[in-house]
Amino acid sequence: MAVCARLCGVGPSRGCRRRQQRRGPAETAAADSEPDTDPEEECIEAGAVALCGAEGGRGAGPSSPPRCSLLELPPELLVEIFASLPGTDLPSLAQVCTKFRRILLTDTIWRRRCREEYGVCENLRKLEITGVSCRDVYAKLLHRYRHILGLWQPDIGPYGGLLNVVVDGLFIIGWMYLPPHDPHVDDPMRFKPLFRIHLMERKSATVECMYGHRGPHNGHIQIVKKDEFSTKCNQTDHHRMSGGRQEEFRTWLREEWGRTLEDIFHEHMQELILMKFIYTSQYDNCLTYRRIYLPPSHPDDLIRPGLFKGTYGSHGLEIVMLSFHGKCARATKITGDPNIPAGQQTVEIDLMHRIQLPDVENLRNFNELSRIVLEVREQVRLEQQQQQEDRPEDGEGHGRHSPREPQHGPAQSSAGPPAEKGREPGDGGAMAAEEQPAQGGQGQPFVLPVGVSSRNEDYPRTCRMCFYGTGLIAGHGFTSPERTPGVFILFDKDRFGFIWLELKSFSLYSRVQASFRNADAPSPQAFEEMLKNIQSLTS
């Protein structure tokens, strides 16, 4: 009412001038003394602001400020105002009146919404040649398919994958990200398009499958439910090659591994490669994708979390996601293999148990490193046992841990002074950094023990710090999985390693140097739920 009164030019009076003209002096005085607390009346009168403003302008006193209806503004100013509003609000604005609806046909408004909301930097004026307006691009392409933008994991059995759906010029393209060729873990990621969506005419957007080597062809996209969509190729004959399956396999091998089968002398690796080709090619780009988020970061994290490429022996390079969870960190597979499938937690780092490596000469002795790690493992076991005895009411054992706490191997330990137990989640990394011995910025010399195999001999020779950790190993088909002790080595802000004690193997991980839009989790709880969901699919 107060807003309506001001717009009607009646000053602090209760009610608009139109209503007052129908009242006597006594009724008006009584109305002015009543509290204005009726929300329904406020809503009704707020909807009549424009009408009150027009009528109040004719009888306003000399002290009333000048009033101006939104309808009286020049069209060019209304274009600027409307262009600054979210595109989702503009259809409602078009229903207000004919003038607004006519102004909202101005392409300048929709060109700005395309640029600010979806990052379209192309010169949209060239659309005029095809008769497609910026409004069409926004409504029929960008807004319609906004729910599939971001990072996704395809359901390809144990192999998984990483799909990034982005607005690329006047297209929406699904790029499959692939690790560099084994064992060059520091090389940049490779990527290839799987599908694209664009406007060919004003009616609707066109979906095209990009799989194969015969150019774009007809495809289909269906949004199954929230955070899940599927793709289908309607012309799978475009995926076939004239030389048959042998030519398709040789082409796939060059793209996937950067070599021929004759160049791979390891018989077991040849079997794994052939198995992956047979399994993945049967999908013919008819896949279901589930949304994944990048891990949230905290100032106290040991290093910035995110995606990393890692070496996995005969399986080649795989993509993992490093995330921090209070006193531990976890590396979850985004791509996988028949032994440890995508979605599983490949490595867990106990940030409460630092490992002080011996000098370089003693570090070359595998038995010495093994002795140190096994001593820490026993310490972790005793601390777990003590926790169980101190808190018998926690009978479940993992009742107070996060939903992603593994059922094997060391759990989070509360070792340390009693004062540390009151720290907030994420402080594990900060505590570790505080304990780091001064090295004059040079770090600690590092060398792999004799007998530990590595796919990449070009690993860093200095490290910042090391922690006790566990790695997940299993037989073919994810049979008999178990967590075994190991050492997490932090080299720098973009690289870390893990020594698998039982396998006598070393994995080197390097950060994926790429920026991803629409990939941040809406909340830490949403990220934890996402991790739990992708793990359950392959458990």
Could you name the key traits of this structure?
539 residues, alpha+beta, Lipocalin, eight-stranded antiparallel β-barrel, 16 helices, 19 strands, 29% helix, globular, disordered N terminus
Tell me what you see in this structure.
The model is unreliable at 1-61, 394-426 and 435-441 (pLDDT under 50). The protein has helices spanning 2-8, 17-20, 25-33, 39-47, 49-56, 75-83, 90-94, 98-103, 107-118, 134-142, 244-257, 267-281, 360-363, 366-390, 427-435, 524-536; strands at 150-154, 162-168, 171-178, 190-199, 205-209, 217-225, 228-233, 288-291, 306-311, 317-325, 328-333, 345-354, 444-445, 453-454, 462-463, 465-475, 479-492, 495-500, 505-511. The longest helix has 25 residues, at 366-390. The chain is globular and about 85 Å long. It has 539 residues and is α+β, with helices and mostly antiparallel strands. A hairpin with a 3-residue loop joins strand 16 (465-475) and strand 17 (479-492). It is found in: Cytoplasm. One of its GO terms (biological process) is protein ubiquitination. Residues 67-113 form the F-box domain.
